[in-house]
Amino acid sequence: MTLRIRPISREEHLAFIASRPSASPMQAPSWGEVKPDWRAESLGWFEEGGQRPAGAGLVLLRPLPKLQRYLAYLPEGPLIDWRAPDLGRWLEPLLAHLKGRGAFSVKMGPPVVVRRWSADAVKAAIADPGARRLRDVPPTEYEPGAADIAERLRRMGWRQTQPGGEDGFAAGQPRYVFQVPLAGRTLDDIHGGLNQQWRRNVKKAEKAGVKVVRGGCDDLPAFYALYTETAERDGFIPRPLPYFQRMWTALTAEDPDRMRLYLAHHDGEVLAAATMLTVGAHVWYSYGASTARRREVQPSTAIQWRMLTDAHAMGAAVYDLRGITDTLEDTNHLLGLLRFKAGTGGHAAEYLGEWDHPLNRLLHKALDLYMSRR
């Protein structure tokens, strides 16, 4: 039986997300308001005669200059039955709908985990001089059926976006992430799962008198000052302050707890700040920032521990530290971040990654060429 697809209201979209244990914040209706250069549309899949969506997705449409043609992007989505034996039943109506909207290419990021590595496996891989990339290290566990989903996508004409650059991050959303499972664990269990360095640093921050507080929209400039300092130190291009203000306004209007801001104070100065996003039982560490001053009092560790404890108090099943490097070589500037995240005692996870489906091969190829030269 075929599925039909049509635009759905914000209320229908949010009701569908509320029925699921997890959904990326980038698949919530509010995310379209964070991206004003894209045109956003909420889509629903319906069974024959069905009144409620069986699946949903937020599509962002980016226009080509001077042409009424669009790149269609579903970041970390859509939210469909990825383990259905006939994926074409879900994806073919999507391609047809977006082609009718003028899309020349469709990009999506299936929220499907392929495999996981325990913190101990990651630590051993970092210490192994012969290990170059996490993807080449035997995983602790495989997710059943994920490889089959990838093969079915290939047969339908979808192309997997390869992890870009030497750091292993994908061109869009991260393919490799680090997550701490919280379901069924006490806070003592979670604290006990931290490595010795983490536990020592949590205690050091407490002893030094670091105070972590929740902030509001008015505190975003303080976060931003630390964020730009972090960008200069780590060599990345920062987003502008209005991006974070827009993000705060859109997300908290949808749900007051969708986005939180935390600030670590010490002796009257803000030393670190971070944002946290929540959808259902999944909590994400989103953006972090810190000054190089007084690192010895461990403000960043204090913030992460506060966010972990708050996520646990909220009944979250997962605390997600987001992207990690796939490269294990000592020369990689992101290896320290991987060590830091692995100290939480969670696990690294590889997602299926992002996939493209060209609807107009000439325009799609032109876009690939443009992106490769950026």
Automatic annotation (TrEMBL):
Stored Pfam families: FemAB
Family: Belongs to the FemABX family.
Keywords attached to this entry: Acyltransferase, Cell shape, Cell wall biogenesis/degradation, Peptidoglycan synthesis, Transferase
Gene3D superfamilies in UniProt: 3.40.630.30
PANTHER family associated with the record: LIPID II:GLYCINE GLYCYLTRANSFERASE
Protein name per Swiss-Prot or TrEMBL: Lipid II:glycine glycyltransferase FemX
Coiled-coil annotated spans: none
Organism: Streptomyces caeni
Superkingdom of the source species: Bacteria
